[in-house]
Amino acid sequence: MNQICKVLIVDDEILVRQGIKYVLDWEHEGFQIVGEAANGQEALNSLQTLQPHIIITDIVMPVMDGEELTRLVKRDYPATEVIVLSSFSEFHYVRSTFQNGVADYILKPKLEAGSLLQVLQKTRERIPGLGATAVGVQPEAAPQRLDALLSRLISGYRLQPEGEEFVKQQLPQDCFSFFGWETGRTGPAGVTGADNADNDADALTAITAAVTGELERNVPGLMQCIIPVGEPNAALLLVNLQEEQWPALLQAVNKLAHALAGQEPELRLTLSRAFGSLSEVAAVYQQSVLKLRQYRFFLPDQVLLVHDELPQREAQLPKFNLTQFTEQLKRQQLEEAFGDLHQHVDALSRQYDGDVFQFKSFLGNMIFNVTNQFSHLGELEEGKYGLFRAIDEAGSADGAVRILEHFLARVMELTSSAALTPGSNANMAKLLQYMEEHYTEPLSLTELARHFHFNPSYLSSLFTTYNQEGFKEHLNTIRTGKAAELLRAGEAPISEISSMVGYGDHSYFCKVFKKYTGLSPSAYRRQHYGQE
Fold first, then answer.
1. Which of 47, 326, 408, 475 is at 20 to 30 A from 139, Cα to Cα?
2. Looking at the whole model, is its pTM more than 0.85?
3. Helix pair angle (91-99, 194-218), 10° resolution
């Protein structure tokens, strides 16, 4: 009989500790709770005496938090495994604990007997002398073989009969789909430093644990297998479920996207179309998974792309009239020429199923043509190769378009066509007035551009040129100024002021306010109360 597995519970909330103690029949399952602690320091002081195999710890605690406890435990007691309790709002802390060797984590809102026991059993397998005996297959043998076989299927190879039978046994249900995620690049052109690469790996590990755990909890009976994709910032999961469970899977991935994106702004997720046979694996990977990843270039702001829920495709665009464009440049009709180009590029960037290489080539060709027309302007000629390279390295259509827009705005300046006219001043005054009147709303550059019928990228360039401050910076200036007025007046609670001036996230408001004023909202109120 295997040795009993000893567990230490660490949480500053006594009700949570009590709940964990009574959620399982611990001894029946082969575990024993040997102690409790209210913070990391108490836990650390008891380790020598209690010698637990597993520590279940909260993240946010007084005196010593779970992050520091994990670091010290793995330094001084490397054989002791740590399971972290957290909420989605603490995900950035969880990510750092994976760097220190945490075994797994459990979401507090999802803490129940089944999920806790599953994590405990999986963690016990990692501990020498407590894992599975030689009866049957070792726990990790099947997944390792399964992911290798699935990798062959994705590559278009046919499996031997025994391999095909094994995969069908492991994934016996009638519906399949690929679920993938990327954490964002760590450097330009794929060049990464060691620290950045480590951070990417830690983020990917934490996200993978969150994804697989949440899918298991929300889609009963779901089977899943991580498939190696050979990229340090990306992961791919093949899920197998009953066809009638597809709505539950959609709900689960939407929930994950909403929850994780707040902690990992660069995180992007994709869900392929559903398919009913393993013979379709290679085709779905090529026609759905890889296509969705390509669409990311044109849809960078959509955290989750679902194959069956893509935006409606734009109508086919007429070919850009390059002859007319060139004639307009020769006649110095830059506003008309650039206006036509803005409209075409804006429409082109909305065709998310377009070819990325052709899109970038078109932008580069436009820069080349404009530069040739104004070859007497040395600055344009000297800078064009840097612009070509920047467009080639752009990770999104918006990013590439911004490069073109800044270039065109600079051409306008250099040719004196962008001199501030009374009309331009009037338009800018209208923009600023609109922001002053609507700062409490969820304003965005896109919304402002739509209201005034401008192209967003063009508006961004002109806003910076004419106002000496970007859109986002100017909006923050307005909002923090209004917040300061409310703080000086002293009537509204600080917790409500953030939403009163247009911020949906109170913690983000506090960061922005301190950046712009040098003081936290509470410190500002203490210093300036009554000065209104």
1. 47
2. no
3. 120
